[in-house]
User: What shape does this take?
Amino acid sequence: MPTVLITGCSSGFGLEIARTFLARDWRVVATMRTPRADVLPPSERLRVLPLDVTNADSIRAAVEAAGPIDVLVNNAGFGAASPAELVPLATVREVFETNTIGTIALTQAVLPQFRQRGAGVVVNVTSSVTLKALPLISAYRASKAAVNAFTESMALELEPLGVRVRLVLPGRSPETSFGDNARAHMHGFDHAAYADIVKATFARLEDTSVPLTRSQDVAEAVWRAATDASSPMRIPAGADAEAWAAEVS
Assistant: This one.
């Protein structure tokens, strides 16, 4: 029975990914900054572990406690919204520390066992905004685009060693806490110079007529990445993500 370790499982995409793998008879190591076993169905195949991807000791402890795994899903992350001119550098560092450095650090901690075994899969969940420029999310978009670049180069290194690497690119979803997290890190939205672009961007985000991404879309894309060796390197997840991917292909 294979084992998957998933980050960011307390809500949103990570929670649905964990539920999907549990439902399909995998062992699941669900990690969260603050563990909450009650958000997932009880199962002998489930372990819930604390993990802060920005803390080296936390990463080390989680990987040791998890034991051998077959698939790593790097899903943890958060957003920030601000005109590029006005985003505090402290926020930029926090975004990159979690979304980019955290992904790299946990991947480095897991890869030795994959390399030694000659098998394993790394699935990095980034964002469809890396496919198409949008205003007010420059730091977030850059942090996720960096993960894309890291992942694609890593894939070339690991393929000869029997390790598969994939990217899942979700679209915008009302089912995650991304919006709440981004609002907590908003800066400069009251600046007169950016009033028009802020208004237009929020109008676009509030448009319910456009197709959005469901958490299950992302879970299915991750499942495909983890279990289908013929899957493409980049897998868009959600109707809006698929539409954007078609535009740039």
In short: The beta strands are 3-6, 27-32, 46-50, 71-74, 120-125, 163-170, 234-237. The mean pLDDT is 91. The helical segments are 12-23, 56-66, 89-117, 138-158, 178-184, 195-205, 215-227, 239-248. The chain has one domain: 3-248.
